UniProtKB/TrEMBL annotation:
Protein name: Pirin
Pfam families tied to this protein: Pirin, Pirin_C
Record: residues binding Fe cation: H68, H70, H112, E114
Family affiliation: Belongs to the pirin family.
Amino acid sequence: MTSRNMSSVDQIFNAPRSIAKVVPAVETAEGDGARVRRSIGTPQLRRLPPFLMLDHFFLTDGAGFPDHPHRGQETITYQLSGATNHEDFTGSAGTIQAGDLQFMTAGKGIVHAEIPSQQPKDGAANIGLQLWVDLPARLKNCDPRYRDLRAGEIPIAHPSDKVDVKVISGQSCGIDSVKDLAYTPVWLLHVNMRPGGELSQSLPKGWNSFIYTMSGSITVNNTKRVEKFNNVVLGTDGSGVNISVDPSETEAADFVILAGEPADQPIVQYGPFVQLTERDIYKTFEDYQEHKNGFERLKGWESKIGKEFHLRRRHSFRV
């Protein structure tokens, strides 16, 4: 981690990136009983390479994502509140708490479960973000792996008394993030901005980028006011983006800035399988069904947290 003195307004861009489109995060059902707001992976925004999907999830007790497969991609899960348990057929298991992240590389194949920890009876939800990222061709068949990042490990920039930036991956306000968390180069910045705050954020040249708003309202490039639950897709024509919260706003804004390096390769996706050709997809289904070429450990396997999840649901239905 490195740091140098730089205020939030040291980098006012003469040519900020244009706003390509603003995509609402549409609420939809997913998994077992889960509700998510999806803004990438919809008809309005099918994908933004290397990004394949972005879900803002809200999971109450009795909802979750029991055993399911992945191949050819990475997932980044950012727990905003509550906690999520995970377990896979390699024997890996654990829990991410509020503020933690999990970087999971599916590579040649993995089957896992993601189940929220039971919340108090007040019905509070487990809330977070999950981002699906394409893997470059040379890593499509790599071994699966995990990298966890705990809340206390994330450096935080305070460019002013109105702005806090968690530098999860990438660079902001002179602070570099923890390195080597994902194979695909991605920047992920979590910003909390109070009324009157502003931030000028540089972005890597040629990378695709967007802003996702989780609460409050922001103004992008001094021209476009954007409310919560929207994805602001930026063009690649400038060197960064200017974001502010008007002093007249009544609440702080909470949002993430993401940027990723697109690979020069085709994307053929069928649900959680992401390959280069349709033939590769057919081969993936064969491997999955026949428990081979990365899915050998699936035979006879079922996650413990998945079993407990199904038992709780059956019990709740009987009650």
